[in-house]
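ok new one. same drill as before - structure tokens go in, u give me an amino acid for every spot. 839 of them this time. try not to just spam alanines like last time pls lmao
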């Protein structure tokens, strides 16, 4: 989700690898071991939870999490919990990384010491205050100064134990501390509107001859206004602290007036210091990205260079896209935005065909085709992940779910065999799994996405043309991707391909490893497959398979998916599971008391229908869906304003007769459900153009006050243009990512330009410093580099101008940048230094 800023869109995303924890303090009992899981939080809102690792003080998670961040945040936090099946889970410690510090750890493994979890330090939200110092003439004719404090509103307060009933307590701190004055409690909202004014006596009565603000400076410096936010609780333990703000009165200055937003802060004693590693530590790899995307016309020069020329420049090594792959430190950096951009504009096949053909022509041995991590390999990998996700789900997910659920023993290494296990039984279990997965894969050719088939056809033709004496090369060129880089990795790590929510447990992971290695070898068509195994037990296991039978099946499958003939996908379309999970929905029908309540249900979305069920396993028990909505009946999917039911993260699925109101577990999940439901229903010709952002309650729409429940919507829908479910790409955002990479590696672009000039004049031993670059045609490459550098510099100037304009216009203390926003303070300091330097 993008945040709009005067024609510029801001995207935030984070990719996290949760590695392991170590030195967790032992449980205070005879067992000492703990059952730990880790959560990822935006401030205090949980957006991801790992599986629980049982009986360990050094739990290994090995889980990856990616999300688009749909709102502003102050901290990215990680909590380690100890699971307790009888009582509430207890927190062991946390890691809280400030937003402005995320770049310090970008893309690097880092051990973070766990800090104590203290309620007084867990704060979020902001408050709007207005302070006014005025003089009051008493009945005796003397003047005293009073401070009028207006508490207007708060935003984004935390929800504690499922509810938020906030109030504010205001007091004046100084030599004579005043008694706190409280606002009224606002029920069931974390965005309360208070608008209450409190008065405090600031100075003792002064003679009438004193001027209005002639107050001793030392006295003012000692005074501060304190505003505490509390959650009114019905529990015996008392109200819960939500955060505080301290405003020194010297901010009033000569005007005597101050109006600003403030971020809530923890109490001074909220964070207790602990010794390093006293609570253990957590290994994380965090990649935080923030893209500032301009309107589309800003990217036309760079986009034209990439799209219009890259697939057609001769040689392709002189193209803008190939040059990006040459200068990036990791080919994956370039592959991700390039593939998404070319997919978006329907030019991925000619581009991949061109760079694959060039790589094949540089390859000397047919047995080494696509063995390295080249730009071609990484781009095809990324294309298969994007275009083939549904293909993987319908092919592998059912049997992988079964393997993860059944936990059948499949260990065939005699050294690792448990005493209670039988080698022959394990070998038979593994063989059955391999056979089933192999048969599912080799019979799925007709379901392979068209874009993948087109790419495989190109690879096959290029390889066969280059190595005409090798009859199998047309197969190995394709199998090296579909088996080695697609099916085998998905079996090995199903969580990375969204086939499972979490990394498998160690026993299941071992089973999947053995299956993956066998499937990879069966699909490789190598001359001596037993020699592929370093382990003797794997070579012995492979002897169970009829080599010729499996080789024929693989060739038939590869022939089908690399054929130039296409088929009608609609005629073979089957229900594909797109997303599922628990959410809370508002009852659509009335119960016997005439009230509509909220219930937890298991939701499932396929490319055919959207359903909800009483429990997760309802289908397996033969129980039908409580409600089924055909995709063609989804007219719009939109967010629901919080004020409708005083509940966060709600959205509505609008049908012809009524809307289904649903609450997701967190803001990230809400965005994901809205996105996927919107995309899958965008081909519906009956889609609405307007909707009601609030609910129909008490006989009228809360948004527009119309009394007819069938009244047309009052707000334009936000669905956007139709798009393929998996290939929904923002072309401008991907071009901005590519610009950022070019900008990051500008020194390499310049060095490559130097290499072109030097190589065109003299080709001798002095060229060693440029040997890392592939330059087939120096003149053509030089020409492209000149255009790329010019386009990048133009965009860089536009970014700098935007930052200068923002620096001039933005007010510190505004609603967008409250006082206490350290990231904005840092930005302001940088811009101020930049402006001073430029002058």
């Amino acid at each position: 989700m993008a945040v709009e800023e005067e024609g510029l869109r801001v995207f935030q995303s984070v990719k996290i690898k949760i590695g392991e924890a170590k030195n967790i303090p032992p449980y205070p009992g005879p067992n000492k071991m703990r059952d730990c899981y880790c959560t990822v939080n935006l401030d205090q809102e949980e957006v991801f939870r790992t599986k629980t690792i049982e009986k360990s003080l050094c739990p290994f998670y090995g889980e990856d999490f990616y999300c688009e961040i749909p709102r502003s945040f102050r901290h990215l936090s990680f909590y380690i919990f100890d699971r307790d099946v009888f009582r509430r889970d207890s927190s062991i410690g946390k890691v809280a990384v400030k937003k402005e510090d995320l770049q310090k750890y970008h893309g690097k493994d880092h051990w973070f010491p766990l800090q104590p979890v203290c309620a007084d330090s867990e704060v979020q939200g902001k408050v709007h205050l207005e302070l006014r110092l005025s003089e009051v003439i008493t009945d005796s004719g003397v003047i005293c100064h009073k401070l009028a404090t207006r508490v207007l509103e708060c935003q984004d307060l935390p929800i504690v134990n499922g509810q938020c009933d906030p109030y504010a307590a205001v007091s004046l701190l100084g030599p004579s501390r005043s008694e706190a004055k409280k606002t009224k409690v606002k029920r069931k909202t974390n965005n309360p509107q208070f608008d209450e004014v409190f008065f405090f006596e600031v100075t003792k009565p002064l003679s009438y001859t004193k001027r209005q603000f002639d107050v001793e400076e030392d006295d003012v410096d000692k005074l501060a206004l304190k505003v505490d936010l509390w959650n009114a609780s019905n529990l015996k333990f008392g109200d819960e602290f939500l955060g505080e703000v301290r405003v020194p009165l010297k901010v009033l200055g000569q005007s005597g007036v101050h109006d600003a937003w403030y971020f809530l802060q923890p109490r001074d004693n909220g964070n207790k210091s602990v010794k390093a590693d006293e609570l253990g530590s957590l290994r994380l790899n965090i990649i935080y990205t923030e893209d500032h995307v301009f309107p589309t016309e800003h990217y036309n020069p760079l986009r034209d260079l990439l799209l219009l020329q890259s697939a057609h420049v001769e040689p392709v090594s002189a193209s803008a896209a190939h040059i990006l792959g040459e200068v990036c430190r990791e080919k994956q950096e370039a592959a991700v935005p390039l593939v998404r951009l070319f997919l978006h504009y329907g030019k991925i096949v000619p581009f991949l065909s061109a760079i694959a053909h060039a790589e094949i022509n540089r390859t000397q041995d047919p047995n080494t085709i696509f063995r390295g991590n080249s730009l071609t390999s990484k781009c095809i990998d990324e294309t298969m992940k994007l275009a083939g996700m549904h293909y993987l789900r319908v092919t592998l997910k059912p049997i992988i779910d079964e393997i993860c659920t059944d936990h059948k023993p499949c260990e065939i290494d005699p050294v690792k065999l448990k005493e209670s296990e039988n080698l022959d039984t394990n070998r038979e279990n593994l063989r059955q799994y391999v056979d089933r997965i192999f048969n599912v894969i080799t019979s799925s050719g007709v379901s392979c996405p068209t874009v993948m088939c087109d790419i495989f056809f190109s690879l096959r033709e290029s390889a066969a043309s280059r190595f005409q004496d090798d009859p199998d090369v047309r197969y190995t060129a394709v199998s090296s991707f579909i088996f080695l880089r697609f099916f085998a990795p998905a079996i090995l790590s199903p969580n990375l391909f969204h086939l499972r929510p979490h990394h498998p447990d160690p026993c299941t992971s071992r089973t999947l490893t053995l299956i993956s290695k066998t499937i990879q070898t069966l699909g490789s068509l190598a001359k001596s497959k037993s020699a592929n195994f370093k382990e003797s037990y794997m070579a012995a296991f492979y002897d169970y398979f009829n080599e010729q039978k499996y080789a024929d099946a693989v060739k038939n499958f590869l022939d089908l998916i690399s054929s130039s003939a296409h088929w009608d996908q609609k005629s073979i379309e089957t229900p594909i599971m797109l997303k599922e999970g628990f959410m809370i929905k508002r009852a659509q029908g009335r119960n016997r008391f005439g009230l509509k309540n909220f219930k937890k249900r298991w939701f499932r979305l396929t490319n055919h229908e959207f359903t909800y069920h009483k429990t997760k396993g309802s289908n397996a028990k033969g129980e039908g869906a409580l409600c089924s909505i055909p995709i063609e009946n989804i007219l719009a999917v939109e967010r629901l304003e919080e004020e409708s039911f005083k509940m966060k993260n709600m959205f509505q699925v609008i049908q012809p007769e009524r809307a289904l109101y649903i609450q997701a577990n967190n803001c990230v999940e809400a965005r994901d459900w809205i996105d996927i439901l919107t995309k899958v229903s965008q081909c519906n010709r009956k889609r609405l153009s307007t909707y009601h952002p609030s609910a129909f309650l008490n006989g009228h729409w809360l948004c527009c006050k119309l009394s007819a429940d069938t009244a047309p919507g009052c707000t334009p829908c936000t669905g956007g243009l139709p798009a393929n479910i998996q290939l929904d790409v923002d072309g401008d955002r991907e071009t901005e990512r590519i610009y950022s990479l070019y900008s990051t590696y500008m020194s390499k672009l310049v060095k490559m330009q130097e290499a072109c000039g030097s190589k065109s004049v003299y080709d001798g031993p002095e060229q060693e410093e440029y040997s890392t670059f592939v330059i087939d045609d120096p003149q053509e490459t030089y020409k492209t580099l000149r255009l790329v550098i010019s386009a990048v510099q133009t965009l860089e100037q536009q970014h700098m101008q935007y930052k200068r304009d923002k620096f001039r216009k933005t007010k510190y203390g505004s609603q967008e940048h409250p006082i206490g926003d350290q990231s904005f303070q840092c930005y302001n300091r940088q811009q101020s230094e930049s402006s001073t330097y430029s002058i």
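The radius of gyration is 31 Å. and btw The first strand starts at residue 3 and ends at 5.
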